[in-house]
Write a structure and sequence with these properties.
Layout: H1 2-30, H2 33-57, H3 64-84, H4 90-110, H5 116-139, H6 147-249, H7 254-268, E1 272-279, E2 289-294, H8 299-312, E3 323-325, E4 344-352, E5 355-364, H9 374-402, H10 412-429, E6 433-440, H11 443-450, H12 452-472, E7 476-481, E8 484-490, H13 494-510, E9 512-515, E10 518-521, E11 524-531, H14 541-554, E12 560-562, H15 565-575
């Protein structure tokens, strides 16, 4: 509104100055009094418009009522000058009408110009002063003039008013129609721009939503791929563990376990192309058990690595934690060739009840292959240890079934099985077989005098001696029952058996049993028989050895008795 008022004020000022200059020209040239009045009128209008223009330029808050009041005053002045101007200068009249017309148009725009009724009221109000001035002028005309002249003057004034009204109405309607059309176009363009902006904003929001949805989908896809990889890895690990578990549970000895583990790990674990294992013996007499398997690796390296591992053996000082070697700087890797696909080796120590029972080495050509496999490796270690425990349990149960619980040598049941096997082989292959049975002299005295603990110690000492002698001579030692023991020697004739028994008795005679600060000596009575030099039936050897042993006990104890005719006579007398 202030911008529009500023433009109208500038236009009024310019027209007023032009009218003032024109009036000055006519006054100077013709000395017309009406022109002199016009000078003052237009000068006042110009000054007033310039003041209003300056106020509007300074963006001062101007009361709209004050602006309207000033314009009305200007309108009254211009209307009065038009009606009462008798200068006869047509140019000044035209300029006056233009000033009046422009002020009427400005007044219309100060109100709601788009409303026709408002425009009609404003135009009527603006016409009222000039009509009033015309009527006053007619009333003030001299009475001397005749009626016709008054009528002509009245008609001229009415024509002037009508002309002004028609001009104002016509120009106003055209101008307002043009303005309304422009405003309509501007409104449509603005609405279109707003709709476009709304659509752009909506599109931007949708694009952001789509972008965010795509990002979320991307994240979900990555998570899904990661989850799939984890599931696949978990399935592979479960498969590996199942195969390891199946393998170790079917192994009944430590060597088969050592053979199975590298094979399963190389075949089932992802990207594993090398595996080596070393296991501690399950018994005191056993040796370290080892095995290795490799894919895409030369045999020279495998041989060198296995040799190094075996020479090193196990050490309880080693860390129980899994270690990953990506440098491969140890001497055992010196035989690696350029084509050997080995970039990392993981060491998996096997501990059972704080005791190291083995080591597993796994190698891969991918350096980070084991970075996320700690849980799997620990589970594999646990399963291998479970396999070792199963084997140890199997051996323990087997030992309980075949060995005597006190002495650790074969029990009577195992003895019978071995004697049957030895006898069948001897008869089939026509080889010798000797069996000896001996009894501890006065054994009851050890129990009665020193207690059963002392008697058990004596039995254990003798069992240890005869077990070693049996091992050295390719035979077996067994506890027959109570204080009786049996030695059986396949492919051993009577003469050789007698020499072995002499050495055995000598070792027992030299044995000293220390019990509660007592040093006790032990003696035995021994009887033996042999196939085929003495007996032609292997099934008779144990019974004949038993008879010979009783013969020795009846004839003074502490001696060795060979089966023969005198033993047969002794048996006949005993049977009677």
């Amino acid at each position: 509104m202030e911008e529009k008022n500023l433009r109208f004020g500038q236009m009024h000022s310019i027209i007023a100055i032009i009218a003032m200059l024109s009036a000055i020209e006519y006054y100077i040239k013709d000395g017309i009094v009406g022109a002199l009045v016009g000078i003052f009128v237009y000068a006042g209008l110009a000054v007033l418009d310039l003041i209003l223009t300056k106020v509007l330029k300074q963006k001062t808050v101007l009361n709209n009522r004050l602006l309207i009041a000033i314009r009305i005053v200007e309108f009254l002045i211009a209307s009065a000058y038009i009606v009462y101007n008798d200068s006869g200068v047509r140019e000044l009249e035209v300029i006056s009408f233009i000033c009046l017309l422009l002020r009427m148009i400005e007044m219309i725009f100060l109100f709601d110009y788009s409303d026709r009724y408002t425009r009609t009221i404003i135009i009527g109000v603006m016409i009222f002063p000039i009509t009033l001035f015309v009527l006053i002028k007619l009333l003030l005309l001299p009475q001397s003039q005749n009626y016709s002249e008054n009528a002509v003057i009245a008609l001229g004034s009415i024509a002037e008013i009508a002309t002004v009204v028609c001009a104002v109405v016509f120009i106003t309607n055209i101008f307002i129609s043009w303005i309304l059309e422009i405003e309509h176009k501007i409104f449509e363009q603005r609405r279109m721009a707003e709709k476009t902006a709304e659509m752009n904003e909506t599109l931007t929001i949708h694009q952001e939503k789509i972008k965010k949805a795509n990002e979320e989908l991307g994240i979900q896809r990555i998570k899904m791929e990661s989850a799939n990889r984890q599931v696949q890895r978990a399935n592979a690990e479960i498969k590996t563990q199942n195969e390891i578990l199946l393998g170790v549970t079917t192994c009944l000895d430590i060597q088969s376990l050592a053979d199975k583990v590298p094979e399963v790990l190389c075949d089932s674990m992802e990207n594993v192309n090398f595996c080596s294992i070393i296991l501690a013996p399950t018994s005191k007499k056993g040796n370290f058990v080892y095995n290795a398997k490799a894919k895409s690796i030369s045999g020279d390296f495998l041989k060198e690595f296995t040799s190094t591992v075996i020479n090193k053996g196990l050490s309880s000082k080693d860390s129980k934690e899994i270690s990953i070697d990506k440098e491969l700087a140890a001497p055992c890797y010196k035989e690696l060739g350029e084509d050997d696909k080995l970039a990392v080796v993981v060491k998996l120590p096997l501990f059972n009840d704080k005791k190291e029972v083995g080591i597993i080495y796994c190698g891969s050509g991918i350096q980070d292959n084991f970075d996320e496999s700690e849980s799997l490796l620990k589970n594999i270690a646990a399963q291998v240890i479970l396999g070792i425990n199963n084997i140890q349990l199997y051996y323990a149960i087997r030992q309980m079934a075949v060995n005597d619980g006190l002495t650790g040598i074969f029990n009577r049941r195992s003895l019978n099985e071995h004697l049957a096997e030895f006898g069948q082989k001897a008869e089939k292959e026509k080889t010798s077989l000797s069996v000896a049975l001996f009894d501890i002299d006065h054994f009851k005295g050890f129990n009665d005098t020193y207690g059963h603990a002392c008697g058990d110690l004596v039995l254990q000492k003798i069992a240890g001696i005869i077990d070693k002698i049996a091992d050295r001579n390719g035979g077996i030692a067994a506890r027959y029952g109570g204080e009786e023991f049996v030695l059986a020697f396949p492919e051993c004739d009577a003469d050789r058996c007698e020499k072995i028994l002499v050495d055995t008795k000598a070792a027992i005679d030299k044995m000293v049993v220390e019990y509660e600060e007592q040093k006790l000596s032990v003696h035995v009575s021994i009887g033996y028989s042999s196939y085929p030099s003495i007996r032609k039936n292997t099934n008779e050897l144990l019974g004949r050895a038993d008879t010979a042993m009783y013969y020795a006990k009846e004839h003074g104890r502490n001696q060795i008795k060979r089966d023969g005719s005198d033993v047969e006579e002794f048996e006949s007398e005993r049977n009677k």
